[in-house]
Amino acid sequence: MTSEVPLRNSLLFRLLVTSVLISLVSIGATAWLTVRGTTVAIEQERGQVLADDATIQEQLEGFAATHRDWDGVERTVLDLSRSTGRTIILTTRARRVIAASQRSAAQRLPLNESAVIDPLHLAPSKDQGVGETEQASRIDPRAVGPYRLPAEERAKLRRVARDEAKCIYDQTRIRPYVVEEASGRPALRTATNPVDFIPVCATKLLLVPTPTEATALAELAGLVRDCAERNHVRLPDPLTITVDFRVEGDDSAEGSAAVDDCVEEGRREQLAAYVAPAALLFVTSPPRTATAAFDLSPAGTLRILATTGLVLAATIAVTAVIAIRLVRPLRALTNAARAPSGRHLRIPVTAKDETGYLAAALNDLSERRERTDEQRRVMVSDIAHELRTPLTNIRGWLDAAQDGLAEPDSALLASLQEEAGLLQHIVDDLQVLAAADAGTLRLRPQELDLRELIEQTIGAHRATAHAGGVETAVHAPDGLLIHADPVRLRQVLGNLLSNAIRHTPPDGRVTLSARRVAGAVAIEVKDTGSGIREEDLPRVFDRFWRAEQSRSRRTGGSGLGLSIVRQLVRAHGGDVSVVSRPHVETVFLVRLPC
How high does pLDDT run on average in the chain? Predict the structure, then answer.
């Protein structure tokens, strides 16, 4: 009888609900990420624009500082425009175009310039602190004009700089490095600051002007005197200007500032002929179509809702298809599970997902059920066969006595008693195995002297061994104590001994030994009988199994003895194993915890 699963509990409904929730969360997350990403992108773009503007201004100022005019600046403007994506226009102060990255843009200049390119009047740096703007030189350090050193003077100063650097390192263990300024004059620097010359290394050759610098400094001194005369500034006498454009001998703060202003003004007059004239820089972004990130008008909102609905519909449709594909094999699994008992319905495994694994597991379970049923049928058949033999003998002798074919004498009674004993033995063995399988086998463990128990067991079998011409021996130390059930342990040793004696030919030997091993006691039953073939060893402990199936039940036993041994040993928490070399020896090893 089939029953419909309520809609709220169906896998399809739960998958649909899950997909809707996931879609809503994903849409909301996507919207948030889009807004956030747009904001970050705008901030990054603004930062990149500022960096590009600074790069454009710095490179054009460098061009102006190293050229007497703007000839050849077109290539620099085009390169900067390509690398930054900006429109660059350079004009004179009268707004006459010098160079432009786009000629069309030059025809419509913005109202205000982006910057003034003048290497002699740099804009104050934003990194300068309060009070530093007036002291710092606003002349581009790349504007060197007449101070540019020829090759021979550069080489001479580099040698001096290397010698002084080595001297400083030897004296202070501070390793300076040599840098070359725009004029070609070398200077010593450490990782952060210029190097202070120590007295030992103060050759002062790096501070002495070269002939080229001396000529330029003399010209500068004249320009400084003219400035001082115009502005009534008192100059030191004599006027000495160093290679770093400082005036020696000027100690007063007020006078020093006025002298520095004259030096700055004189430098501008001196360098004016070596740099390009001041120009106006216009930097704009190329025209582009503005795209709104979000349109929250009624029409835009409707489009967003429509897109969201399409996403939801597509998600639901895909989920429905996937759910149907998932439910179909589940229904096949349900039908297989409801198949009539004893019928093996194999489920086709069509996927390698959880459903496929479940189908494979059910197929395996079904196969194991069939094997178990087959083993049960075989076991029942074996039990019936084992019980039928003594019952048939008993009934046959009783019928013969009733018909007068046999005398009910002591021999007949002894035979009947023997058959009844065999029947009782089989029933007792089956009862032990059933209790072990059901977990109801009860043990009564106590402290035992293992050697004494072994002596008792082998004594009970010595007559049987002597009758078969089999020698028995015991090897066990005195005082070997073990905690076990004496009745069950004696049953284990008795089954192993009877099995060994039965399979040992005359003049053979059966040895029962015991010894203590790490954390356990090992008991060995060794015989020199026919042995067991290697392919038969895994089946030795199976129920009703015999190495020689043709052997009679009376001489070969019931086939339950070794199965009982394994169950009783496991009930004690131990294990049993067997090794055999056919026609040489067979050893059963029992390990029991101390």
Answer: 79
Over the stretch 241-255, which tens digit does the pLDDT of each residue have?
888 888 887 555 455
Reduced 3-state DSSP string for 339-364: CCCCCCCCCCCCCCCHHHHHHHHHHH
Task: Starting at the earlier edge strand, list the strands of the sheet with 279-284.
Answer: 97-100, 87-91, 279-284, 115-117
Q: What is the pLDDT of residues 405-425, one digit of tens each?
A: 777 777 777 777 767 776 776
Nearest 5°: phi and psi at 241?
-110, 125
Return d(Cα 499, Cα 548) in angstroms, integer: 13
Phi, psi of 423 (to 5 degrees): -65, -45
Residue 503 amino acid letter: H
The radius of gyration of the chain from alpha carbons, rounded to an integer in Å, stands at 55
Closest residue by Cα to residue 585 from 523, 468, 504, 512: 504
Band (pLDDT 50/70/90 cuts) for residue 290 is very low
- Angle between helices 410-438 and 561-571 in degrees, nearest 10: 40
242: three-class secondary structure by DSSP: coil
Cβ-contact 168, 176 below 8 angstroms: yes
Three-point CA angle 538, 539, 545, nearest 5°: 170
Q: How far apart are CA 378 and CA 135, in angstroms?
A: 111
Stated as kind and residue range, the H or E segment containing 433 is helix 410-438
- The domains located in the chain, with CATH, are 1-139+275-336 (no CATH), 145-271 (no CATH), 354-436 (1.10.287.130), 442-593 (3.30.565.10)
Residue of higher predicted confidence among 191 and 231: 231
Q: Residues 107, 112, 114, 118: is their CA dihedral positive or negative?
A: positive
Contact 535, 545 (CB under 8 A): no
Separation CA 178–CA 82 (nearest Å):
35
* Cis check: omega of the bond before 238, within 30 degrees of 0: yes
pTM for the predicted model, two decimal places: 0.45
At a CB cut-off of 8 Å and minimum separation 6, what does 225 contact?
A: 235, 239
- Cβ–Cβ < 8 Å for 553, 499: no
Give DSSP secondary structure letters for 141-188: TT--GGGPPPHHHHHHHHHHHHHHHHHHHHHHS---EEEE-TTS-EEE
